[in-house]
Amino acid sequence: MSDGPYKTLKMSTKWKALAKLAGNAAHTNAEVAEAVPAALAADWREIGQSFLRQMRAALGDDERGLLMLEVAKQEVCRLRAQHSNPMEALLADNALDALRDGRRGAEALEDAAFATLVERADRGQRQVEEHYRREASQGKAAGMRARLTESMAAVDLKGLASALVAGVSARDLTSPIDRTGLDEGVRL
Q: Which of 22, 41, 63, 158 is the most buried if burial means most Cβ atoms within 10 Å?
């Protein structure tokens, strides 16, 4: 007896849950989209609070930081060199891009967080698709990619990024929807 194709999937539990929902045709794209913020918020937790606090200061959380662009760039590069995981490195890279585009302060941090979540969502989607290409048919993998693409397009990643940067708990952002009522069955 097998535990199914999700046992060998090398992902976090939230991404496995998302893949399982997307792989089940009984779930709508809206239901799959509801699981995306939980997976991304779980990845966001890899970014340490001290790293985020230092990034906020480097991008200019006060008037001094807004005046000296080169100092901000050097500080973000220093943080990039001190990253402890890929999410922190990705956030630092996107913060440098935001600085180069002329954004400063909270706006730069929110844009960097948004770009980080977009890139992480894309990577997660490709990871699920790659797994399906190895474990199932090419047609099923293509269908999975299309379904995940459509579901992720329905998610407000900008709002999620703003909330995560503001310090809203991932648990508050991703509370599951209760579908245990009589009227909450499968749509016909």
A: 22
DSSP alpha helix (H) spans, the chain: 13-23, 29-44, 49-59, 63-67, 69-81, 86-100, 105-135, 138-153, 157-166, 170-173
For 109, the 3-state DSSP assignment is helix
121, 113 contact by CB (below 8 A): no
The pLDDT-based confidence of 55 (bands split at 50, 70, 90) is very high
pTM for the full predicted model: 0.84
Helical (H) or strand (E) element with 14: helix 13-23
Look up tokens 């990643």; give the residue.
157
| 11 SS3 class | coil
Q: At what angle do helices 29-44 and 13-23 cross, to 10 degrees?
A: 170
